[in-house]
Structure formats: C-alpha cells, structure tokens
From TrEMBL:
Protein name: ATP phosphoribosyltransferase
GO CC annotations on file: cytoplasm
Keyword annotations of the record: Amino-acid biosynthesis, ATP-binding, Cytoplasm, Glycosyltransferase, Histidine biosynthesis, Magnesium, Metal-binding, Nucleotide-binding, Transferase
Family (UniProt): Belongs to the ATP phosphoribosyltransferase family. Long subfamily.
Subcellular location, principal: cytoplasm
Pathway(s) where this gene product acts: Amino-acid biosynthesis; L-histidine biosynthesis; L-histidine from 5-phospho-alpha-D-ribose 1-diphosphate: step 1/9
Organism: Fodinibius halophilus
Length: 293
C-alpha cells in the first residue's frame, strides 16, 4: 500500500544520510530537543520524545520523497529541490550548506562571458537548471549530464565548460577554471509536502517550526549583562537594539544599575564599543539555549 503524507500521525522527516548536510541537520534536530538513537546505522529512526521519525536517504532523493508525500518534511539544499523541479513548499531557509551553482570555463579559453556559451558543450550534474538558464537567455548549448568530478570535463575535452556547485572556488582554480556566472544561490532549506496533511500533522509541524524558530533566533542572539551609571540608562537604551525594553536593576553602589538584555550577535561589537563610551562596565555575554517570543 502506498503511504501518503496523511496516512500516519508521526511526522516523517527526510534528512541526508551521510554527507555535507548530515551533521548540521542532526545538530539542529538535537538542538530543538529531539532525542533519537542509532541514526548512523538505521534508515528510519524514531524520536523518543517527539512524534517524529527520521528517514535517512541520499540528498538528491529528498525533494521527490517530500513531493510525493512519502515524507512530510525534508532538509535539503535548494539546488536539489530546484533541479528536481519538486512541487513542495519551502518553509525555512537555513544558513548552512551554503553554496552556489555556477558556470565555469578554462581561464585562458574563448569563453569569457555568457554570450560566449553559444554552441558550446557544458558538463553538469544539474542539467535542468543549466538548460533552463540558457533557454531563458536564448543561447543554444549542448548540456551533457555527468554525475561526479564535473570539473575535470574540460581537461578531458568532454565539454567546453561546466556548471557545478561552488563554495570556496578552490576546486575550480585547481582545475584551471574560472567562475563566470552564478545561476543559483543555494542553502539548506526545510521543505514541506504539498499533499494534504491531517490537522494532527499540521499541529505537529507548527510545534516543530516554533522550536526551530526559537533555536535559530537564540543562535543569532546573545544575553548581555552590564553595570552602568544610572544617568546613562536612557542613552544605553537607545544604543541597544533590544527585543523589548531591557531589565534595569539598582546595584548596592549608589547611582549604579545592572542592565540585562538580548542583542543580535551581528551587532554585538559595535554596540559594545558604544556602551563602553557611555560608562558601561563589567559587560558579560552569554549564549542562549532557545527563545520563545
Ligand atoms: P554531499 O553530497 O555530501 O557533497 O552534499 C551535497 C550538498 O551539500 C549539495 O547538494 C549542496 O546542497 C551542499 N553543498 C554545500 N557546499 C557544497 C560544495 N562545495 N560542493 C557540493 N555540495 C555542497
């Protein structure tokens, strides 16, 4: 019997079995309090404390499993979902597995810009995205699908250029290639099936998302504590990009207060310099486990 997304009350979540996205995804799931064993040895793992089971599969299979409702949710790179043209909903973009899909050609060759691709052969593991890109630009190319070691294709004279995933660009350089155009910016995404879900599953997804959002927000924030002269409180309030109004408590030393608040990590150093200039001292920064707003 074929399973549909609706035929079971446990949420089934697809994640990459072993690869670049696996550890970060497992850390994220553990970070939101999910407890499970043996994910390295089993393909289907039941969580002990949340109505979720994890299906560990190849990342390029994830978009279709989610599209078909075999899994309700999946963690996978946008590159895979878009290459498959999967009919799914992207619930969240997650800032890991960040990479781009780019066109590259020999550094010293005759392809130096997009228009030079006319009539050329391109090797790639992403034929759909490559063809879509050139069709849209009305440039004729011959796209050859290769499953691995794409960057070697120009040297083997199998292709004039490649379209491949890049993160640092070192692999391209090592193969005498230059990156010419980025056709897709990618990161890991949480995707959801578009098949009908029961109210029970929808509730589970809401709960799951609330935990994820709390965790993501906490990762990007720090709890900050400092002492400051009472007279500086107003100025300090203006400096701190706080979630809500900071907690201000009197100290035993006359005229001094303790200020506690939460700030986005990106702004910490700029804020700290300005706080010091306003007389803040004993500044302590702490990580936050989770935040429910
Ligand atoms: P893996 O099969 O383990 O190499 O994982 C591949 C997935 O990781 C890709 O589909 C991308 O979503 C992501 N990724 C991030 N950076 C890179 C990279 N430099 N090369 C290949 N994949 C990457």
């Amino acid at each position: 019997m074929q399973r549909t997304a609706d035929s079971n009350t446990s949420l089934r979540i697809a994640i990459q079995k072993s690869g670049r996205l696996t550890d970060k995804t497992i850390d994220l799931l553990k970070g939101i309090g999910l407890r499970f064993d043996d994910y390295k040895r089993n393909l289907l793992v039941k969580c002990r404390n949340f109505d979720v089971e994890l299906l560990l599969i190849r990342d390029d299979d994830i978009p279709e499993y989610v599209q078909d409702g075999v899994c309700d949710l999946g963690f996978v790179g946008a590159n895979e979902t878009q290459e498959k043209g999967a009919d799914v909903t992207v619930l969240r973009g997650l800032d890991y597995g960040v990479c781009r899909l780019s066109l590259a050609a020999r550094k010293d060759g005759d392809i130096q810009s997009v228009n030079d691709f006319e009539g050329k052969t391109i090797a790639t593991s992403y034929p759909k995205l490559t063809r879509d890109f050139f069709e849209e630009k009305d440039i004729n190319t011959d796209v050859v699908t290769i499953s691995g070691a794409v960057e070697i294709a120009p040297r083997l004279e199998v292709a004039d250029a490649i379209c491949d995933i890049v993160s640092t660009g070192n692999t391209l350089k090592a193969n005498g290639l230059q990156e010419l155009v980025t056709i897709l910016e990618s990161e890991t995404e949480l995707i959801q099936t578009n098949k009908k879900l029961s109210p029970g599953k929808k509730k589970l997804i809401d709960k799951f998302l609330q935990r994820m959002d709390g965790h993501q927000q906490a990762e990007r924030s720090r709890y900050i504590m400092m002492n400051a002269p009472q007279d500086s409180v107003q100025k300090i309030k203006e400096i701190i990009p706080s979630l809500k109004s900071p907690t201000v408590m009197p100290l035993a030393d006359n005229g001094m207060v303790a200020i506690h608040t939460v700030i986005p990590i990106d702004e910490f150093w700029v804020v700290m310099e300005r706080l010091k200039a306003e007389g803040a001292s004993g500044i302590v920064i702490l990580p936050i486990e989770s935040m429910i707003l």
